[in-house]
Amino acid sequence: MELNAYTYVGPEEIRRAVMAHPAGVSIRAREDLDRWLHAHPDAMEEGATWVVDLTGCLRLAPRRSEHVACAGGEEVLAAGEFHFQRTATGWDIAGASNQSMGYCPDTDCWDALSLALTRAGIRGPPGFTHAITFRRCTRCGEFNLVKEQWFVCAFCDADLPALWNVAPRRLVLVG
Question: Superkingdom of this entry's organism (predicted)?
Fold first, then answer.
């Protein structure tokens, strides 16, 4: 499957500051999620920061972590935030967003997340429960979160592009 790779577009000072932090924990199986949540009990209430790395593996970090730290400074196939739900068989993903100001991924990154969850045997929603539309203004260059389909720059009032344009991206083959 070919998926888009997203490069970090956030402030360079944040990337430098967090690179001393360990990368997010790889979640390859349901048991990995259970262990991670046991080690991070606050995440059961607060949620978690997540990325899908270039190998298609889900990585988790505590909720207030920077996505670029969770990704070990690398490009990602997807990034966002999770909320969890306890079920009879363990923990599931109750809510998922693509909210990451560091990577500003398009909503099509759901395909990478869905693949990672399926591989790990973790149940989640059928799509993002809170999808965020990111655009870069072609006039002033600022990043925008499009709300209620209002494609107008919050900084200079210019029209925003209909298609994702935050940064160049490349296709990655994930097997």
Answer: Bacteria
Whether pTM > 0.85 for this model: the answer is yes
Contacts of 94 by beta carbon, 8 Å cutoff, 6+ apart = 83, 84, 85, 125, 129
Confirm if 15 and 73 have CB atoms less than 8 A apart.
Answer: yes
Render pLDDT for 82-107 as a digit per residue (tens, 0 to 9): 999 999 988 999 999 999 999 999 99
Nearest of 2, 1, 3 to residue 105 by alpha carbon: 3
DSSP conformational letter for 28: -
Bridge partners (DSSP) listed for residue 62: 48
Lowest mean pLDDT among 12-16, 56-60, 73-77: 12-16
Extract the tokens encoding 124: 């989640």
CB atoms within 10 A of CB 94: 16
